[in-house]
Amino acid sequence: MVEKIGRFHCFYVKIRGFSTEETEEILERNSKVWNLCKRSGHIGGTQAAPATIIQPVKGCAGKVTSACGPKIYEFVFDNSGILSEKCCEQLLNAGRECHDSDTNSILSEREFSKEEREEILARHSEVWNLCKRSGHIRGTQPVPAPTVQPLTGCAGKVTSACGPKVYAFVFDKSGVLSEKCCKLLLNAGRQCHDSETNSILSEGEFSAEEKKEIMKRHNQVWNLCKKNGHIGKENTVF
């Protein structure tokens, strides 16, 4: 019965008319019932030791209220629902570490396939990014994040054969560049090189440190091509 109802049937119950202490106790027993049923198949007079689960990071409890928490994780785990500006604000104020901690804690309470986990973690990041960018989430199919478009006239100046090699250096710190590829990059011009890197950066998530490293290699690739005419293994960019 418990598997048919599902973990989040209980998690999403709207609790009204209870004090903060009562609500915390109710949610604690809600998790205990789930874990005991999953582990033992029943709840008898003698309760088994609690299942080992990942505990949320200390200090995160209560940062996202019982009114907003279920809505956030309905999107993460069920791919549905909307988030108000208030709920997005609570999520962002709680911080990414708490958001990660809550999702990992819920993931540890039940079994998910590899594909399910990948989808859940993708939506987990999507919720954060949509709240950060738009301040709210409307509907179940959010609009993709806007990306920086390459400058007009730059397309095709670095060929499909050389382009991936150039940006393997910039983003993956790997590979070599032939004289032909360096020549194409330099002939395209620094403005096009900058534009391509910024366009790729806008399509993914990078920390401040990662962006700093990427821009450093972006400059090094240009300078090495200009200085040596090629990039070999002996001067791989790191």
Automatic annotation (TrEMBL):
Pfam families: Prolamin_like
Organism per entry: Carnegiea gigantea
SUPFAM superfamilies membership: Bifunctional inhibitor/lipid-transfer protein/seed storage 2S albumin
Annotated protein name in UniProt: Prolamin-like domain-containing protein
Top-level taxonomic group: Eukaryota
UniProt keyword Oxidoreductase present: no
Residue stretches making up the Prolamin-like domain: 60-131, 154-225
Keyword hit for Oxidoreductase: no
Keywords: Signal
